[in-house]
Methyltransferase-domain-containing protein
Amino acid sequence: MGKNKAAQSHSFTCALDLEENRIKRLERAQRHGKTTNSLCSSTSTTKSLEESDFLDKFEQSIGVFGDSPVANGEAGQIFDYGQGLLKLHLADVRGEALTLMSHYVWNSALVMAEYIEAGNELDIQGKRVIELGAGAALPGLLCVKRGARFVTLTDYPDPVIIKNLERNWYENLVKSAQEKEARKGINSTDEELVHMQRLLESTSSFCTSTTSAQSNEINEDWRLIEQNVRCAVREHKWGTGVEELLGCLQINEGSSANNNESDNDRKYDRILLADTLWMSEGHVALLNSCRALLSETNGKIFLCCGLHTGFTPVQRFMALATGENYGFKKRLIEIRRMPAWGETRTTEELRQESRMLKEQDLEQFSIEDRNRTVLVYELRVGK
C-alpha cells in the first residue's frame, strides 16, 4: 500500500512539474515576442517548421496544455521516476517519427506504473511480460525491477526510437547492475559490455546491427546479457511477424524452460499497452500482434488509455477486441481521474469521484474532463 501511495504522489508531482515548466516556457516566449502552444518544441533551431506545425496541430487537438497536462517531459530530456529508481531518456525524434508521440511519458504510463507497484490487478511477479509501443518504457522497465520473469520492450522500427529504448535498457538495467557489482568490489571488464557501450554511443542500434557474420559473436554476447538482466529490446511493427519476439523467451529462458510446456505456453503472460489506441487505423494490426503473442492459458492484456483523444478510438478498439475475430473478454478496472493544476482534493477524494463514473458517462465529457481521465482495462482470452 505504501508503494501505491508513493506512486500516486509521484503522478501528482509530475503534473505540477509539467505545469511549472509550461509557464516558464510561455514566459520565455513572451519575452521574445512570441507565443507558443507546443509542449515539446525545442530551443534547438534544427527542428523544421513542418515538425513544429505537426506538434501544434496535434497538441491543440489533445489539449496537452491547459489545467490538466496529459504528458510529462520533453524530447531529449531525462525523466526521473521513483527518486532515481528509473532515469528515462526521452527520444529526440525528428520528422515522421514525431507522429508516434514516443518522446513523452504519458499519464497512462504513470497510472500503469502504480498498478505494477501495487501488484494486485496487474500481477507481474514471475510472469513473462511484453510492452508494445513502449516509448521510454517506464512500465516495462519497472516490471523488471519488480520481479517479472522476463520482459521484452518493443516499439516501432524507427532508428532514433529504438536506439533510445536500448539506451534506457542499458542504463537502467545493465549499467546499474555493473555499478551494484562494483560497490561489492566486483569489476566487470567483459568485452561485450565495452562493445555495447560503443554501440549505444554510435548512430546504429543493436536491433539493426547484428545481421552480418562478424556480428554473430556480438549477437550471442548481447543475448547472454539480456538473459542476465531478464529483459530484451526489439523493434516491432504491429501486425508483422512475432517470431523474434517469441524467440526472446526461447533463447533467454532456454536453460530453465519447462520441457512439458506447449508452444502456446511459451508465449507471454502479460501484454502492456499504455496509450496505444489513439490511432484507430492501427487497431487491427495491434490486435493481430497481441493474439499471436499472448498465452491462451493464462494470458492477459493490461491497457491504460488516456481519454485526451476522445472515447471513440477506445470504443472502436474494444468492439474489435471483443468481436468474433479476436474473442477477448473485456473488464473495465477503473476510470481514473488525474489531478488538475492547483488541485486541492486528496487522492482518496479523486478516487471516490472515479468510482462514481460509468463508461456511458465518458461520451459527454468536456475536453478538460477527457484530459483528466485515464481508462484502465483488462482483456483476456475468452473461455
